[in-house]
Fold these 2 entries.
Entry 1:
Amino acid sequence: MLSLLINTMFFKFQFRNVEYSSGRNKTFLCYVLETQGKESATSRGYLEDEHAAAHAEMAFFNTILPKCDSSLRYNITWYVSSSPCVTCADRITETLKKNKNLRLTIMVGRLFMWEEAEMQAALKKMKSAGSPEASNMSLFFLPHDQFRKDL
DNA sequence: ATTTTCAAT
């Protein structure tokens, strides 16, 4: 199908490991939510930013996270086209510190505003969120990432 | 040429 080809090309364009996200103007967030315990369950979904209204990460916190049961453990995986901005990274850090039942793995397509020192600090803080003995945050870049500096 | 970032018309 032609539409499948176009969708595939668009997906690859959005998740491409480029240095600057010129012309993309969007961020996609695919998530896998695994509930642990007696009744293990997996749900999957996809979110995108609402432009100026809310970034994709905020959309997750506003619409998906409230449906989680704080007495259950969750393994959350995000596949995001862009790394989070400073505000979103801070929100992720806070959320992981506040909710010890969550474990979040983020797979990042490309970096967002990596040159900014504030951005680097926010990502480092996010990566070390949670208790040091049992960190509940993992951050991964593409294996062939050309632009990532050491975190 | 890599060419400027989760829109604004």
Entry 2:
Amino acid sequence: MKNRTRKWHTKSNFSIHLDNPSFRQPRLLIYGKFDPVKRWVKEFESSIHKGSPNFACKLNTINQCTRNAHLSGSKLGLGCWLGVSFFSGCTSISSPVAHSMDGEDHFIHFWDSVLKTLLPLKPEKNFKSYVETCVSILKNLTNQWAVTQGSVLHGHLLKKGVFSERYIAVKFLIMYLNSRKSAEANEIVKEFNGFDVIVHNCLISANLKGGNLDKARKLFDEMPERNEVSWTALISGFMRYGKVEESMWYFERNPYQNVVSWTAAICGFVQNGFSFEGLKLFLKLLESGVRPNKVTFTSVIRACAELGDFKMGMSILGLIVKTGLESNVSVSNSLITFFFRMAEITLARRVFDEMKERDVVSWTAILDIHVEMGDLLEARRIFDEMPERNEVAWSAMIARYGQSGYPEESLELFRRMVEEGVRPNVFCFSFVLSALASMKAMGTGMSIQGHLIKTGMGKDVSCSISLIELYSKCGEIKDARVVFDLILQKNVVSWNAMISGYSLNGKIEEAQKYFSIMPARNNVSWSIMIAGYLDNKEFDKVFEVYNEMLLVGESPNKSTFSSLLCACASIPSLEKGKDLHGKAVKLGFQLDVFVGTALIDMYAKAGDIESSKLIFNSMPKKNEISWTAMLQGLAESGFVEESLKLFQEMERSSSVSPNELMLLSVLFACSHSGLVDKGLEYFNSMETVYGIKPKARHYTFVVDMLCRAGRLSEAEDFIESMPFQPETNAWAALLSGCKTYKKEVLAEKVANKLSKMAEKNPAACVLLSNIYASSGRWKDVVNVRKLMKEKNLKKSGGCSWVELRNQVHSFYSEDGSHSQSADIRDILELLRFEMRPFQRFTD
DNA sequence: CGGTACCCTA
């Protein structure tokens, strides 16, 4: 069911709304930098001017800083005040990640400073607020796993005699349980002197948090009496681990059916993907006369968003208004996302704008809307000016920068995140690792891996997947394999990453091996294999795997189609291509940039340039590759003027800038239409205007262009003045120019040059032997061939193939490997015999 | 001492 929602809000829904003026116009003007801590530190400084700060002033400052511990300036502010330099340890380290890892220390320093200020204070001055402050610090320490600082506070409170309060003892118990400090936890349990419902509840929920479901159940069963909290803890705990049936077993037997336990069950359904059942349970709740509260509504609204049920959502909104909860922060937060998922972006914005009070989730929700729509600039603006950021907001930005081709920015944000004391979760780590993978920054990736191993996240699937990606991209496939082997719970995605790594490193057999033994495959697995065979130019295998994929009932995705179409373009097979085009339209992929581009290329290579143009013009989004394919298609199909016109149009009207391949097409077009001077002009402006350094292939095209126009001496000068070794093809172009324009002297010169190169260059050998053959110098031909054999030079052979009943048969020259090779040769002999009378026409 | 909304890997 989760998948259904994901599929439902595709990007195409939003492109319409992006242009909606009512959404565009009102910019988010409510931003404003808000950092109360800075204000408090300022007030504190002014009180120093008046004299030394008193108890109330110090306590107040601690409270403010603790309450706003998440804010960026707070740690710095308090640190400066206490004379602790938070950045002392980090300025000397230049590596961004080493820098980040030190963030943990800043964060510990922060709490050390807080305690250093708190401990000398005398509680008698205002006992009540002193205790309140301690409890608030303790809560933060528990959330942030600062158990060392927690035990310092614990000892201090014992000494001061504040610890007698029962509820404080419970909070320490929870802290110790969460940090798995069983000795300390047992100590506190002992002090409670026997059975206590609350202590037992704490034990149960700690076990549930750690995943020990059986232990939790046992503790629950052993309890002589239970309260409503015991039941709800169990219900929600089982839901958290996907045990919906067990959870409902307890729900139905729960003697205290209050809102909280109802909400736990409803929410559990929604979180496990059973939103419809969640809604049904909500209706039952209404029937039973229990009044839903804000938490219930947030879960139910989320269920409507997951189901895409706008009407139901609006009915529930009616109920919300009736109960007076429409201005509640959490409820509004869920409504923002609900409207966004319904593509009602204006409504989502209105909910946000009309909120009297916003929290970090509200900001993250509105941030995510911009991120999802691809408006990265505006998203960044919101992100920078948000009053508070949590790991969700950070990870949304880090992920999106990485995916949009800005891995450096992704890494920089990650560094800042850790520096500001926000603890990254496994998702965050995997985002930043995949950004590093696209930068091929193995060293930095390894230091993050070190951190992951140290903190016990080294075997996590999502992090490991990104690590596999990183090592494969850097060519360290063995290391990728080590990471893969260590994953505790391998899922399909991790297998896919491994297969794709092998394929990327040219080990298609290994990829095939893993593909065949993986326990479960999805369409991505199949696509990876198809793309792998495509990279290896084994086109018959491409279609073989595709047919097998269809046979097992797996549905191809967009990337499958672009690989298949690319294979069609390489063969080229118009029939297969058209067939795939039809299927793509049926599945709604024809508007996709990658599929569209592959179609353009396929039709162009198959000679149907009209169809290419039709597709190009109908594409709603074109990227650099689409333009390149179209320009190349036009130029190579002989539509040179149109190709040049399109290039100019692109420069004028699109944000795409010219690349190497486009300039090759332009030079090709100029060469084939006799526009030599225009071509030279383009070539000379490559570096100055477009910032592209010409490659050997560009030089070859210019040589070809000059030769075609008969400007042979110019071509010779050009080839001699090249800053690097010319391609063999450049010499070939010059030679064929000599042949056309009967320049025998020059031809002889070129041949001499080639014979010098022939030692190492198989292409030069072939060219040379062709020259000798054409002038009847058979002895020289044999010498060249002998040279090739001695030096073990091999030219990659030409290959031809035919397509029969969904199978591609390929043949190399002198190739007898086909199973029906003998029969084929017999037929060929027969055909040759029958064609003999026409032979004089073929020469 | 129990229940929530925002982010989620190829």
